[in-house]
Design a protein that fits this description.
Layout: H1 14-22, E1 27-32, H2 42-55, E2 60-66, E3 78-79, H3 84-91, H4 100-103, E4 108-111, E5 123-127, H5 131-134, H6 141-155, E6 159-162, H7 165-175, E7 180-182, E8 209-213, H8 222-233, E9 240-244, H9 251-259, H10 263-266, E10 269-271, H11 277-286, E11 289-292, H12 301-308, E12 313-316, H13 321-325, E13 330-332, H14 337-349, H15 351-365, H16 370-388
Helix pairs in contact: 2-16, 3-6, 8-9, 8-14, 12-15, 14-15
């Protein structure tokens, strides 16, 4: 089990930090905000929070850009005349085209979504988890291509920003680099439900349910959660299991696991499909437990979202989960269905443990902040800027 990441985990040596903070000059950073365009994912939400927190600083001047042709640009963004799919096909094999001409007067280039373009500028690339690198057989074409771009960038000297120590360790192992820095993320903004019951899930009004948040993908380990629910269903006849998230590469296995349940339990598993923030907030405000049995995580926003809403968490010991959750979750091995069922039972029925988890979760959320994330990224940008100079 990992230990919590220090909020000052990547602070540079004392002399370097003092030198950076004493300099009045502002560093210009080209920030890839492509994840903000189109349907917003967890990565997009993280990029939005990072950009907002960096803009509040006086030492960083952002030049936000996107290669993506999806969606409408936000004010201040620059869309480069290079489609992302075409660019990544080239960057997976070649060291051009560079973006430098369009990014002037940037002094550092930050790729926020696993890839960063070839450039003469010092480069930083954010890696959230390494599931697709460990399991290339499950990676679809665009993800595999991003992996090749990432490997070329790292091999040519790009610095990696890892969102957790677990991811940093995996990057060192899988990409063979020591140019890795940990800068943790933080909780996404708390969204309060507006009191109205969303029609698609109104059947959950007044009944207890276990909630799982996330795309139905292999990494989320949802078939084992369905199997654990089978163990609970006979003892908790009114309990539901809600799988809230978009379809992904594990839909077939999830549906197979649901079909294997006894009819009385099968009818109590609810698939919401893609949901908006209002529906998610409604679910979080009423869930009895958040189940998060992932096979790997690079950070895990749902952990902190549940804690914000005073929902006890039962999660796996995989990836970054232990270091993000700390003692504010019941942690079980990702491959142990019986342990998962027992953990859920404990969180559902033990009043004292529920109170402890809720109190610890509130404290844990406050451990992270986007201002700290921005402070540590700014220090890293300045170090990279000095390298470039």
């Amino acid at each position: 089990m990992g230990s919590p990441v220090s909020r000052h985990a990547i602070a540079p040596p004392a002399g370097t930090l003092a030198r950076v903070t004493s300099e009045p000059t502002t560093l210009t950073v080209a920030l890839d905000v492509g994840p903000l365009l189109g349907p917003l994912t967890g990565i997009g939400a993280a990029v939005g929070q990072i950009a907002t927190a960096l803009r509040e600083r006086g030492d960083i001047d952002l030049k936000p850009f996107a290669c993506s042709f999806r969606g409408r640009l936000h004010p201040g963004m620059t869309r480069l005349p290079l489609p992302a799919a075409l660019a990544q096909r080239m960057w997976a094999r070649l060291s051009y085209p560079r973006l430098d001409h369009w990014l002037r007067p940037a002094q550092v280039l930050h790729g926020t979504n696993y890839t960063v373009a070839p450039s003469r500028l010092p480069r930083l690339v954010t890696v959230y988890d390494c599931w697709f690198l460990r399991n290339p057989q499950f990676a679809r074409g665009d993800v595999s291509r991003a992996g090749r771009v990432l490997r070329r960038a790292v091999a040519s000297g790009a610095m990696v920003h890892a969102s957790s120590q677990a991811t940093a360790d995996a990057v060192r192992e899988l990409l063979g680099t020591d140019r890795v820095e940990v800068v943790s993320l933080a909780a996404l903004p708390h969204v309060a439900p507006n009191g109205a019951e969303p029609a698609p899930i109104s059947e959950l009004i007044g009944v207890p349910f276990i909630l799982a948040l996330g795309t139905l993908e292999r990494r989320k380990n949802l078939p084992r959660l369905v199997a654990a629910f089978a163990d609970l269903a006979d003892r908790h006849l009114d309990l539901r299991l809600v799988l809230a998230g978009s379809d992904g590469d594990d839909c077939e296995a999830v549906n197979f696991a649901i079909d294997a349940l006894q009819p009385s339990a099968r009818s109590r598993v609810i698939l919401t499909g893609r949901m908006d923030d209002r529906v998610k907030a409604w679910l979080l405000s009423r869930a009895k437990v958040l189940a998060y049995p992932s096979l790997d995580e690079g950070f895990g926003f749902p952990l902190l979202e549940a804690m914000q809403h005073r929902v006890p968490v039962v999660a796996s010991t995989a990836g970054s989960i232990p270091e993000v959750a700390g003692d504010a979750a019941v942690l079980v091995p990702a491959d142990d269905v019986a342990a998962l069922a027992a953990g859920l039972e404990h969180a559902l029925t033990d009043t004292a443990e529920r109170a402890r988890l809720i109190a610890a979760g509130i404290e844990r959320v406050h451990f992270y902040s986007w201002s700290t994330t921005a402070e540590q990224l700014a220090a890293l940008y300045h170090r990279l800027g000095e390298e470039g100079a």
